[in-house]
Amino acid sequence: MNTDIEKVKVLIIGSGPAGYTAAIYAARAGLNPILYTGGQPGGQLTITTDVENYPGYPNGIMGPEMMEDFRKQAERFGTKVRYGLVTKVDFNSTPHKVIVDEQVEIHAETVLISTGASAKWLGLESEERLNGRGVSACAVCDGFFFKGQDVAIVGAGDTACEEASYLANICSKVYMIVRKDEMRASQIMQKRVMNNPKIEILWNTETQEILGEDEVTGARLINNVTKDVSEIKVSGFFVAIGHEPNTGIFREFINMDESGYIKTIPGSTKTNVEGVFACGDAQDHIYRQAVTAAGTGCMAALDAERYLASLE
Ligand SMILES: Cc1cc2nc3c(=O)[nH]c(=O)nc-3n(C[C@H](O)[C@H](O)[C@H](O)COP(=O)(O)OP(=O)(O)OC[C@H]3O[C@@H](n4cnc5c(N)ncnc54)[C@H](O)[C@@H]3O)c2cc1C
Question: Which residues of the chain have pLDDT under 50?
Fold first, then answer.
């Protein structure tokens, strides 16, 4: 362990839209923020291609390019962006202790958690290969690219039902692939998909392979009961089997829901620990969009600034 302890006013953990937006606001407020990027500099948008729904880009923009813009804007006002993974925290002490890469110790008056969430995947080779080429974990983000086309969605929870209904508004047909003969979703959500003539539910069905060389052309499915193998033709394949918030290292100190999403005080980004704020997908299982993540990143910086002012 490096014995030099660095003292900072604002430490931002994560470099997605939430973290960089928090950095822009904190830096412009003169708080000299330090931001650690984690293992995915730029966050989730670096694994997608076109982003068409972020305001300010009338012609759309590639995800990685957009996140480069975010980084440059944060650095322009003095944010120190560092590559490193926060491996441990101790929020019982004030200031809060944060350990980076198991060796650097930082004492931070405020910590802004913007570590995002990761989509869960089926684990198929074809799914990984075709990710971003027709395979997606976000219907709201990518559904529009399949306007008027046939698509499939895997999942049986409320989110899967909601995304299937969303896709049915845009696409010509939606196959909903459900592993069991029942769904986990609430009755009202189930009814909504079952009553939608554009959605065909394939019960007791699992995906063996997503088909296509450079882009999705279909999927090979197996019926768990009859063991019959069949193929569907689709150009989009959506996976909606849940997300995992990247919040494990904070569990001991921060209140979370049963899935690991950080609980914030409504209308703010405050957590149960004074001086620790959470923004972006790490605390949002509902909207999960770049613009909402950026919005709460702004809130976190303003909340931190006000908290620091209250200590003076
Ligand atoms: C394929 C795909 C396409 C998408 N398309 C769109 C779209 O078109 N429009 C849209 O609005 N949204 C889209 N989204 C959703 C959008 O990407 C997310 O809502 C948004 O990125 C969330 O931002 P965030 O800052 O909360 O977290 P993330 O972007 O998830 O970033 C989290 C950051 O935290 C860092 N991190 C994690 N753990 C640690 C740690 N221990 N220490 C340090 N850093 C850490 C990671 O390295 C990463 O930089 C898409 C998502 C995916 C997966």
Answer: none
Whole-structure pTM value: 0.89
CATH classification code of 121-239: 3.50.50.60
The reply to whether ligand 1 has any atom less than 6 angstroms from the CB of 124 is no
* Topology agreement, domain 5-118+243-311 and domain 121-239: yes
Domain edges within the chain: 5-118+243-311, 121-239
Indicate the CATH number for domain 5-118+243-311.
3.50.50.60
138 catalytic residue (yes or no): yes
Q: How far apart are CA 297 and CA 34, in angstroms?
A: 14
Catalytic residue among 50, 138, 158, 298: 138
Catalytic residue among 142, 150, 284, 303: 142
Collect all residues with Cβ–Cβ distance below 8 Å to 219 and sequence separation of at least 6: 152, 177, 207, 209, 210, 211, 231, 232, 234, 237
Query: What digits encode the pLDDT tens for the residues 74-128?
Result: 999 999 999 999 999 999 989 999 999 999 999 999 999 999 999 999 999 999 9
